[in-house]
């Protein structure tokens, strides 16, 4: 193979191949009588390995170290490892496409794309103009951005709460505290009612250590004015106590 052919085969540019030669990452093959470099399958495998390592974020110096460890390995072993790596990529792409297909089937929103579980949760939530409800939605989107299984479990467990029309009245009462002081007498009773409204199922799936003013809850607290922050903090403390009681019972 010539340089253009091996570059096309691996999916890089001829310029990149020459650069790898220049820095000593890829040995220059012997030239034929006509002056052209003659690349082999081994060269193609090595180039593919370099490409994969750089794509996952390794610097060229780090790639050099990895390749040094590969020296002396049989070609079949390297090919098998490369094939397994490509298979993992293929599975990951298929999984992402499946998620994307679900997102494309759902109504597009201004704060999308959302995961299927969060989209389903918000779809069943009653319409409201409450600023506190909008803030909760932003917080859920932030949790959704983490993209882990814990978030999906929380969204599924929150479904009964989202469908409860009584929650809208609690949001409105929280809105009324936007400019209140931290000594407002409405704080304690509202916090108690909000905490009581959270289903036990949510407590069973929240990440370990949450809710906590020192964890993800800290981000939420920083987003509220003083009186509302006091309410949310008390709700967190009550939910954390409920979690402890569940664990010790």
- The percent range for helix content is 55-70%
Strand proportion: under 5%
Q: Could you say which structural class the secondary elements and strand pairing correspond to?
A: mainly alpha
Number of strands: 0
Largest sheet: none
Helix-strand string: HHHHHHHHHHHHHH
- Our count of helices gives 14
What shape does the CA trace take? Answer: elongated
Ends: how far apart? Answer: 70 Å
Residue stretches low in confidence (pLDDT < 50, at least 5 long) are none
Nearest-integer average pLDDT: 80
Kindly provide the radius of gyration, computed on alpha-carbon positions and rounded to a whole number of angstroms.
28 Å
Furnish the topology, listing elements before pairings.
Blueprint: H1 3-10, H2 14-22, H3 41-55, H4 60-70, H5 75-105, H6 116-123, H7 131-145, H8 149-157, H9 159-162, H10 166-175, H11 187-197, H12 200-203, H13 216-221, H14 226-248
């Amino acid at each position: 193979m010539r340089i253009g052919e091996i570059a096309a085969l691996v999916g890089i540019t001829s310029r990149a191949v020459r650069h790898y030669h220049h820095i000593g990452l890829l040995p220059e093959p012997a030239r034929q009588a006509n002056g052209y470099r003659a690349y082999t399958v081994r060269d193609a495998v090595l180039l593919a390995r370099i490409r994969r390592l750089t794509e996952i974020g390794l610097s060229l110096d780090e790639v050099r170290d990895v390749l040094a460890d590969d020296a002396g390995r049989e070609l079949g072993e390297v090919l098998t490892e490369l094939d397994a790596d490509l298979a993992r990529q293929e599975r990951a792409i298929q999984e992402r496409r499946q998620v994307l297909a679900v997102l494309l089937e759902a109504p597009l929103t201004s704060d999308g794309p959302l995961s299927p579980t969060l989209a389903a949760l918000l779809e069943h939530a009653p319409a409201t103009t409450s600023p506190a409800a909008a803030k909760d939605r932003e917080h859920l989107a932030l949790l959704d951005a983490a993209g882990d299984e814990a978030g999906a479990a929380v969204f599924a467990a929150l479904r009964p709460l989202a469908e409860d029309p009584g929650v809208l009245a609690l949001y409105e009462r929280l809105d009324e505290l936007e400019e209140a002081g931290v000594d407002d007498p409405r704080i304690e009773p509202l916090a108690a009612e909000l905490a009581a409204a959270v289903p036990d199922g949510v407590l069973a799936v929240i990440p370990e250590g949450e809710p906590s003013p020192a964890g993800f809850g800290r981000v939420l607290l920083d987003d509220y004015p003083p009186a509302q922050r006091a309410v949310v903090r008390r709700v967190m403390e009550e939910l954390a106590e409920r979690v402890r009681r569940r664990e010790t019972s």
